[in-house]
């Protein structure tokens, strides 16, 4: 974190670290269309203990679209994602500088984390259905928020329908989710997240443990959901980013190297590092 | 793979055989010792089991064991009442909330506590509770001493049981907007409970077999336990084993062996219960 960084952060561009002088001039107009940005990350630098995992990341994520975060393992994309709903705060030794604004609120100084998290849902790398019945999985949060049983079941039915599970498992609603396939479990988790009506959905490599068919099904759901909410997708699968994301951000060693329109980023990357990574990883 | 024809292969085989034989020898040693104890205790103690054992109190070096049986149950009840909640909440704190450094310190303290000889805890109980607090030999002093002894054990098993619950359950619940408390209650404690109860039962069985912390704190009484928590000495089974074996009378010896048999039966029952409750490993 020498002078370079602070110098760059004066210019309103994404941070490219100490090396990429060429990229400095690329001021990206992040929001290219009518989609107003809903997440503002401004010079976010994050640490686990003494290890810096994010370095001056600045990024605006447009609403009602899918934004993909790609990059090699350990590049910080998951940390970035988990900072958006303060999940990373739970990891001992985590701290950050810079600001994250979501839905007009500063994430660091939230008064009511729980209400905030209801509007920022999350889907995890491995399906994590709770150890209770399929129906209870979807209704648990609603129950704790004091919603009537009748209404809860209505919502559950609607959400399970939305993710295409209802007709598949109609007669198994009271059984344990462990009988479901991985893809079905992940869709159950999606239904569970949707039940509390989030405005933003954070997806942490949600399909990395799934077979291709389940992956495609999940992707089609994401695309449909983008009509009414904002999705941020961390993925290792560049083809997936290409298929579903409107915008893509490429990260490397804790820095946001490049970000923009997905098609552009893949066809004409501006930064040499992006180019190398994309060429290596896309078939 | 092809190693069996080489020198290294041979020496490996010899080492493997020797390890196998040593392990078997060690196992046999343990089994023989346990069998010897069991046979001795059953042979010497089984004759003493009769209805009057449970209905009459000890008189001098003869009589029944009603006072000691009830006393043991009384002490176990109160020590579990003290150590249970504190230990379980401590375990939850360590597993979920404690920052790394505090957790390490607390774990170290618990280990030290677990390593303190029980007679020292007994003497500590004597100087503090029996004398300084003026409680005299009593249920309260005895059961608190016992709970100090079992506390680290309960903390440890609770922490371990909670750590076995996938972290993604807890995070998934937080991501839905549940408070940490609700998340713990609904998705973490449920799967952790069998393990915690198992630990509690094993802790009870440890307390059951202790003599040293009670000698200085509970005293001994030929009469059934009273409802007074202080100033009333109380009998317990391990005292009978400890003292009556030194008496030069066969009636005292028989009583000691019968008390030992009862203790072993109680411990076996607790262990069977614990095994029954042991969470099955997901296959």
Query: What's the overall average pLDDT of chain A, rounded?
Result: 86
Sheet-strand content of chain B, in percent, reads under 5%
**Per CATH, what is the topology of the largest domain in chain B?**
MetI-like fold
Q: What CATH architecture of the largest domain in chain B would you give?
A: Orthogonal Bundle
Broad shape of chain B: globular
Number of strands of chain B: 2
How many helical elements of chain A?
11
Number of strands of chain A: 10
Instruction: Provide the CATH architecture of chain A.
Output: 3-Layer(aba) Sandwich
The H/E string of chain A reads HEEEHEEHEHHHHEHEHEEHH
Overall structural domain count of chain B: 2
Can you give a write-up of this model?
The complex is a heterodimer of chains A (283) and B (283). With 283 residues, chain A is an alpha/beta fold. Chain A has a single domain (3-281), classed as P-loop containing nucleotide triphosphate hydrolases (Rossmann fold). Chain A is built from eleven helices and ten strands. Chain A has a six-stranded mixed β-sheet, sandwiched between helices. In chain A, strands 2-1-4-5 form a four-stranded antiparallel β-sheet, covered by helices on one side. In chain A, helix 4 crosses helix 5 (149-162), helix 4 (134-144) runs parallel beside helix 7 and helix 5 packs across helix 7 (182-194). The longest helix of chain A is centred in the middle third of the chain and has 14 residues, at 149-162. Chain A is globular. The two termini of chain A are 36 Å apart. Residues 1-33 of chain A have low confidence and may be disordered. Chain B has helices at residues 7-45, 51-55, 66-97, 100-115, 118-132, 139-164, 167-175, 180-208, 212-215, 237-244, 250-277, and strands at residues 58-59, 62-63. Chain B has two domains: 3-48; 52-277, Orthogonal Bundle (MetI-like fold), CATH 1.10.3720.
């Amino acid at each position: 974190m020498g002078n370079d960084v602070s110098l760059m952060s004066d210019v309103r561009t994404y941070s490219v670290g100490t090396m990429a002088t060429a990229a400095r001039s690329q001021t990206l107009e992040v929001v290219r269309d009518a989609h107003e940005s809903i997440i503002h990350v401004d010079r976010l630098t994050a640490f686990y203990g003494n290890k810096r995992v994010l370095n001056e990341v600045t990024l605006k994520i447009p609403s009602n679209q899918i934004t993909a975060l790609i990059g090699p393992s350990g590049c910080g994309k998951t940390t970035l994602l988990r900072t958006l709903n303060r999940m990373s705060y739970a990891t001992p030794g985590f701290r950050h500088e810079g600001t994250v604004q979501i839905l007009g609120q500063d994430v660091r100084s939230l008064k009511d984390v729980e209400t905030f998290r209801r509007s920022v849902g999350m889907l995890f790398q491995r399906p994590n259905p709770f150890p209770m019945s399929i129906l209870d999985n979807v209704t648990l949060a609603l129950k704790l928020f004091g919603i009537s049983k009748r209404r809860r079941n209505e919502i559950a039915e609607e959400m399970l329908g939305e993710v295409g599970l209802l007709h598949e498992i109609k007669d198994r609603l009271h059984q344990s989710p462990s009988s479901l396939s991985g893809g079905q479990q992940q869709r159950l988790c999606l239904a569970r997240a949707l039940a509390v009506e989030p405005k933003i959905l954070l997806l942490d490599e949600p399909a990395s443990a799934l077979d291709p068919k389940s992956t495609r099904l999940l992707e089609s759901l994401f695309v449909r959901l983008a009509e009414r909410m904002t999705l941020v997708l961390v993925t290792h699968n560049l083809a997936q980013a290409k298929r579903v994301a409107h915008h893509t951000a490429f990260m490397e060693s804790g820095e946001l190297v490049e970000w923009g329109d997905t098609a552009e980023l893949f066809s004409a990357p501006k930064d040499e590092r992006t180019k190398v990574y994309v060429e290596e990883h896309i078939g | 793979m092809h190693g069996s024809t080489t020198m290294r292969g041979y020496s490996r085989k010899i080492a493997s055989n020797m390890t196998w034989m040593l392990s078997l020898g060690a196992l046999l040693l343990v089994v023989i010792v346990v069998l010897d104890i069991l046979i001795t205790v059953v042979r010497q103690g089984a004759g003493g089991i009769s209805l009057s054992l449970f209905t009459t109190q000890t008189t001098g070096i003869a009589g029944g064991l009603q006072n000691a049986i009830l006393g043991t149950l009384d002490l176990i009840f109160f020590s579990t009442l003290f150590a249970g909640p504190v230990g379980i909440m401590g375990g939850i704190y360590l597993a979920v909330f404690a920052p790394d450094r505090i957790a390490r310190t607390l774990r170290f303290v618990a280990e030290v506590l677990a390593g303190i000889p029980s007679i020292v805890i007994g003497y500590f109980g004597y100087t503090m509770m029996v004398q300084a607090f003026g409680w005299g030999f009593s249920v309260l002093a005895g059961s608190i001493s016992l709970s100090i002894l079992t506390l680290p054990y309960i903390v440890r098993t609770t922490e371990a049981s909670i750590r076995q619950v996938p972290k993604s359950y807890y995070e998934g619940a937080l991501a839905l907007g549940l408070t940490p408390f609700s998340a713990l209650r609904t998705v973490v404690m449920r799967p952790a409970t069998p393990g915690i109860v198992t630990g509690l039962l094993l802790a009870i069985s440890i307390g059951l077999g202790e003599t040293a912390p009670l000698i200085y704190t509970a005293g001994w009484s030929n009469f059934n336990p009273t409802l007074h928590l202080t100033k009333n000495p109380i009998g317990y089974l391990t005292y009978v084993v400890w003292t009556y074996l030194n008496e030069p009378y066969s009636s005292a010896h028989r009583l000691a062996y019968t008390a030992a048999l009862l203790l072993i039966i109680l411990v076996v029952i607790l262990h069977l219960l614990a095994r029954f409750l042991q969470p099955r490993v997901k296959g």
